[in-house]
Write a structure and sequence with these properties.
The protein is an alpha+beta fold and 150 residues long. The chain contains 3 helices and 8 strands, in the order E-H-E-E-E-E-H-E-E-E-H. It has one domain: Pnp Oxidase, Chain A (Roll), CATH 2.30.110.
């Protein structure tokens, strides 16, 4: 059975991406000529065809997207796993309103593919805890997510 392929986020995916969500980001590292995977969580769906996310502006992610803009984000929800392919571009290398040096990156979605293996479903989406000051983490998360929505 072929996996379902769409050009936009569905209702459930869009709703999930209205808040901070754990995702895996795959980029191409030109120097090593190999794929690279990073975990990110400051991701927001502007609409069903566009994602924005924030990463440290010193991250190799920024350099990778500038040199090879094709990216894949992996979304794991309570049912399945999705590969979201698109073209990334650095909107700003410094989100001025954020105390950390973060870059804002936009991804124009080209394809959303259900990549869960046959005969299985995710029984629980990934959970994570912030390991630094809880109040500071919550404040920073609010600031970053608000800035991504602008």
């Amino acid at each position: 059975m072929a996996n379902q392929v769409e050009q936009t986020l569905n209702d459930k995916q869009y709703e999930l991406l209205q808040q901070e969500t754990f995702m895996l980001l795959s980029t191409y590292h030109e120097e090593t000529r190999s794929p690279m995977v990073n975990a990110i969580s400051w991701v927001y769906a502007k609409d069903r065809r566009t994602l924005v996310f924030a990463v440290d502006n010193r991250s190799v992610i920024v350099r990778n997207i500038k040199s090879a803009p094709k990216v894949v984000l992996t979304l794991i929800d309570a049912d399945s796993t999705y590969s979201i392919k698109g073209e990334g571009k650095v909107l700003t290398e410094r989100m001025e309103e954020i105390p950390l040096k973060l870059a804002k990156i936009e991804v124009d979605i080209e394809e959303v593919r259900d990549v869960m293996f046959y005969g299985a479903k995710i029984s629980k989406g990934p959970d994570y805890d912030k390991t630094y000051d809880e109040k500071a983490a919550a404040k920073l998360d609010r600031q970053v997510m608000t800035s991504l929505k602008d």
